[in-house]
Design brief:
The complex is a heterodimer. Chain A is mainly beta. Chain A has no helices and eleven strands. Helices cover about 0% and strands about 60% of the residues of chain A. By secondary structure, chain B is mainly β. Classes of the chains: A mainly beta, B mainly beta. At the A-B interface, strand 4, strand 5, strand 9 and strand 10 of A face strand 5 and strand 10 of B.
Chain lengths: ~110, ~120
């Protein structure tokens, strides 16, 4: 079966750094992705990690540890527009299975 | 930037009626997907489609559901006899083939069709 866990909510202030964790148990693992979804909008692709380590893309970084079945999304210099839900998604052989999502609220 | 287009944006239907949700994937993408999201919940996989056939489907995708690529651009999801619990946002997505396991472009999602079954 497939199981992904994320915190349901995270709150932080503008300018801060926040880390959203994801642990997974899946039958088959190719990589871990992160998606951002604003209220009423579609998920948008942020990053993909297939190998252990940190991948940086601007203010966002994503980390993977395959041996720990764990990854995280790191958001730096938080802005109000970063308030959204963030989903981790495991790529199995054919497709992505999404986690339950973490709702990030950025306060002024 | 290329987009995945979904129509209609909102569909209201009576229980037991058939609905067809339409999607136009990005033109050079080869893989197509339908996901759904019940309000406030996670994004759930329904079906993937490649080379004119279903490549994978979930337990949600039962005999009431079908997909079709009737021409070179459209990708449709049909629900034969809608139930109240089918009310959800339905997202179409498309992707390029992944370059092995190390490079993946991710999915491009459409903006969704909100289906309300009454």
């Amino acid at each position: 079966g497939q199981s992904l866990e994320q915190p349901s909510e995270v709150t932080a202030v503008e300018g801060a750094i926040v880390q959203i964790n994801c642990t997974y148990q899946t039958s088959g693992f190719y990589g871990l992705s992160w998606y951002q979804q604003h209220d009423g909008g579609a998920p948008t692709f942020l990053s993909y990690n297939a190998l252990d380590g940190l991948e940086e893309t601007g203010r966002f970084s994503s980390f993977l540890s395959r041996s720990d079945s764990y990854g995280y999304l790191l958001l730096q210099e938080l802005q109000m527009k970063d308030s959204a839900s963030y989903f981790c998604a495991v790529r199995t052989e054919g497709l992505f299975v999404f986690g339950p999502g973490t709702r990030l609220s950025v306060l002024p | 930037e290329p987009e995945v287009t979904q129509t209609p944006s909102h569909q209201v239907t009576q229980m037991g009626q058939e609905v067809i949700l339409r999607c136009v994937p990005i033109s050079n993408h080869l893989y197509f997907y339908w996901y759904r999201q019940i309000l406030g919940q996670k994004v759930e996989f329904l079906v993937s489609f490649y080379n004119n056939e279903i490549s994978e489907k979930s337990e949600i995708f039962d005999d009431q559901f079908s997909v079709e690529r009737p021409d070179g651009s459209n990708f449709t999801l049909k629900i034969r006899s809608t139930k109240l619990e089918d009310s959800a946002m339905y997202f179409c997505a498309s992707s390029l083939p992944a370059e092995g396991m190390y490079l993946n472009y991710g999915y491009t999602f459409g903006s969704g069709t909100r289906l309300t079954v009454v």
